[in-house]
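Memo to structure team: turn this sequence into structure tokens by end of day. - J.P.
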Amino acid sequence: MNQDDLASLRTKFGRFDWEERRALVEAMVLLVLAAPLVRFLPLTLIGRIAAAGPFGKPPAATDRTEVLTWMVAWAVDRAAKRSPLRALCFEQGLAAQIMLRRRGIDSTLFYGVMPASGTARPIRAHVWIETERFPVIGDPEPGGFALLATWPQGRRAVWAQCRS
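Reply from structure team:
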């Protein structure tokens, strides 16, 4: 990275407020940590990590919950585009789930599969995050994913059209 790239990065980062900056840094750290976790840990252990919490005190106002939720979605999306490691839906979902639950926002991580048509791979897997009010990360396309797991367990997808 040359001096001009570094100066450009500082300028772009500087236009965000401190809360947005913290969210971006947190999202990048969590995405970098999520990549090896998803690759090497068993799904049951990842599920326990995703189901932990909520740790923080829930936001007092509903509009504050929405602002925080959208900020988490924005930060994870933005950090995933710049992540030095793999940052697909599973890594993004895990990062968003941890960030939301740290902020006291109840959310659910969904893991589903569907047959892939016309590709060499027989199935497609997908992860998405929902709160009770709206989808956050990885909203699956219509057509339905067979739901394999949710963290916390036993929750139903509200926004996605999935077969459960």
